[in-house]
Amino acid sequence: MGLHMPDSKTYTGGCHCGQVRFECTTDMAMVTACNCSICTKKGLHFTFLAPQSFQLRAGEDNLREYLFNKHAIRHQLCLDCGVDVFARGKKPDGTEVVALNVACIDGIDLAKLTMTPIDGRNR
Q1: Which is nearest to 77 in space by CA: 119, 14, 8, 11?
Q2: Is residue 2 part of a domain?
Q3: Any alpha helices (H) in 1-123, and if so which ranges?
């Protein structure tokens, strides 16, 4: 593949306590505003990346996996501060995908992001 949209940028980020750190490349073309139970309760907004566009830089051993419902999305939480940093899952066609919690990106301003409504509650 290797094709990047002109507005793809490299971002760094991590959990609240700093144990878990990542680097990723994304155009942030879609950021979810999902109404499912977990996104609602945790205030999660995800952007989706190809696994090769996401690198965990620190904290692999400090992550706990959280599964619910159909276990389709494997949420990765920091053991110390509890922040849901990213999740691993598969697209409907079976392709691996990383769902990144955009609130974990360094210096992000959520108010400036365009959110895409997702009706996860009724899936």
Answers
A1: 14
A2: no
A3: 37-42
pTM, full prediction: 0.90
CATH value at residue 103? 2.170.150.70
- When divided into structural domains, the chain yields a total of 1
| Residue 86 within a domain | yes
pLDDT tens digits along 43-59: 999 999 999 999 999 99
pLDDT over 70 at 6, yes or no: no
- Asked if residue 14 belongs to a domain, the reply is yes
pLDDT in tens, 72-115: 789 999 999 999 999 999 988 999 999 999 999 999 999 999 99
Asked if 45 and 33 touch (Cβ cutoff 8 Å), the reply is: yes
Residue 95: give the domain boundaries.
9-109
Q: Is the CB of residue 7 less than 8 Å from the CB of residue 25?
A: no
SS3 111: helix
CA dihedral sign of residues 48, 22, 41, 69: positive
